[in-house]
Amino acid sequence: MGNNPEDMADLASKIGHAVDRIRQITSTLDGKANSVQWQGPDANRFKHSEWPTDKSQLARVSQSLQDVQQQAPSGIVSGGARATVYVDVKLKNVTGDSVAPWAR
Asked: Looking at residue 97, what is its pLDDT?
C-alpha cells in the first residue's frame, strides 16, 4: 500500500510539534511541581509519587511519538494514533487541557 509523500511529511511535522509541546508542558509542570508551596500527605504523594510517574509516562509518550515521526516519511506510522490518544487523555488529566488541536 502506498502513501502520499506530502501527507506523510505533514504527519511527521505535526507529530514533531506534538512532541515539542509535550516536552514544553512537562517542563512547565515539573518546574511548578518542584516550586509550589504545598505541604502535607497529599503534597508528598503528588511530588514524590504521582508527578514523577506522570512525568515518566509523558517522556515515554514523547519518545514514542518521536520514533513514529522518524518513521513517518517511510509510511510506517503504526501506533501513532494510539500514542496521540494516550497523550490527549494523559495531558488532559494532568493539565485540564486537551492536546488534540495541536496534535492534528
From this structure: 55
**pLDDT tens digits along 69-89:** 888 665 544 444 544 544 555
Q: What is the DSSP letter of 75?
A: T
The whole domain housing 30 covers: 5-103
Cell triple for 1: 500500500
Report if pTM > 0.85.
no
Specify the pLDDT at position 79. 47
Q: Do 79 and 64 contact (CB within 8 A), yes or no? A: yes
- What pLDDT sits at residue 52? 96
Largest pairwise CA distance in the chain: 57
Reported as type and span, the H/E element at residue 32 is: helix 5-35
Q: Which three cell numbers stand for residue 25?
A: 508542558
Cell of 39: 505541604
Instruction: Please tell me the total count of domains within the chain.
Output: 1
| Cβ atoms of residues 91 and 98 within 8 Å | yes
CA 22 to chain centre: 4
